[in-house]
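ok so I'm stuck.
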Amino acid sequence: MLRKWLAFLHLDPPKTLVLGFALIILIGASLLHLPIATNDGQGLVWIDALFTATSATCVTGLVVVDTGTTFSTFGQIVVISLIQIGGIGFMTFATFFALILRKRISLRERLLLQESLNHISIEGIVRLAKMILIFTALIECAGGILLSIRFAFDMPLGKAVYYGFFHAISNFNNAGFDLMGDFRSMTDYVADPVVNLVICSLIVMGGIGFIVMSEVYEYRHTKRLSLHTKVVLATTAALITAGTILIFIFEYHNPKTLQPLSFMGKVFGSLYQSVTARTAGSNTINIGDMQHSSLFIIILLMFIGASPGSTGGGIKTTTFATLVGAVIAQAKGKEDVIFFRQRIVSQMIYKSLAVTLIALSLLIAVTMILTITEQGADFLMILFEATSAFATTGLSMGLTPHLSISGKTVLVLTMFAGRVGPLTIAYALTLRKKKEYYRYPKGKITIG
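replied:
not stuck anymore, here's the structure
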C-alpha cells in the first residue's frame, strides 16, 4: 500500500517524510481533540491539541497543558504512542509490519528508510531497522522495570508500573513528557540516585543514535569503532561533563535550586540538567529559578542537541565537533581537520557550516517573531523557548503554557522544522554531487 501511494504521489524521500510526519501529527491532534482524551470530557481546543501532538511526534516535550492532570488514560496513551512513532520513525514501524507480513522492501522504501534514519548508505538498512526495534524494546523494558520498582515505593503497584514505562518510553525517545502533575516534571526526585541514573542513561542512549549503539554492542566481536561513533561518544562525554561542572558551579549557592541539597544531590541535579538539556526536556530543578549563566549554558547545549540518527534534535554533536575541529585546525595553521588520525573531507565541513547557519537563521527568525506576538515577555524566556522548540528539547522557563495562539502556531512550525528540517537539509546537500568539468580562478578576500 505504501509503495502504491509513493508511486502515485511521485514523492521523493524527504517530501515523503515531511508528509508522513504531518499526517501523524494531524491524526494525533484529532484524537486529542476528542472529549474522551481529557479528564473533564471536553477535549482540548484545536490549537492545544495540535501543539501537543506536534510536541509528542517531534519528541520535543513542550506542553501547553499538564499531561498528568489534563489527559485521561486514553489521551496519555495517544501521547506516548505519538512519542514512540516519532522517536524511532514511522518508516521503521512500516518496515517492521512489512517484514511480519513477509512483504518485499522495495528500493524506494529502502531509500526512504535511509532518509528516515539519517544513515550514510542504503547497505544493511533493513537490518539496522530490525536492530533499532530490538534495542528500543529491550532498553525501554529495562528502564520501565527499574523505574516501576522505584515508583512502587511512592504509589500503588499498578500506577507505578504505568508511570515507570511511560517515563521510560518518553525519556528514551528524548521527549520529556511526564505524568507527575502541576508541570513539576521530575523535581520530586532531584536527589534520587535510581531515578537520576536510570533516566540519564535512557536519555544518553536515545541521544547517541542507533548506529552508535549497534557498533558499541558489536564491539566485543569486531573490536573496532567507526570514526562517526568515536566522535559521537567523545563529544557527548565532553558536553555532559562540561555542562555538569558549569551548572554545578553556577547553581551551587542558588537557594532556589542546588543550595538546599546535599553534595551528591547537587551533583545529581547538575548532571541531570546537563544531560536533559541537549535532548530530552524533563528536569529535576525548576528551570525558571536557575541563574542566567546556567540558562545560557543550557541554551547552547540545546542548540547543539543530540547525535545523527538519534531521537533528539539540534544541529547534532558531529556538526559541532566538525566546526570546533575546523577552528582549531585554522588556529594551528593546518589545512585538514583531523579526528582520531583520520581526515574529515571538506564536503562535511561545508555541510556543517550550512546546517549551522540555517539553524541560526531559523532561530533568529522565530525569536524575532515571538518578540512581536508575545509582547511583554522576557527576551531570555523567548529565546529559551524558541531554542527548545527548534532543538526539540522541551525544556521551558514557563512561558509556553501562556503563549498566544500566534505564538503557539509559531512554535508548532518550529518544532516540525526542527524534527524534519535537518534531515531534509542534509539529504538535499548530499544529492548535490554533479561533477564540474571546469573551475574558476582563485580569488582572495579579507576575513576577520
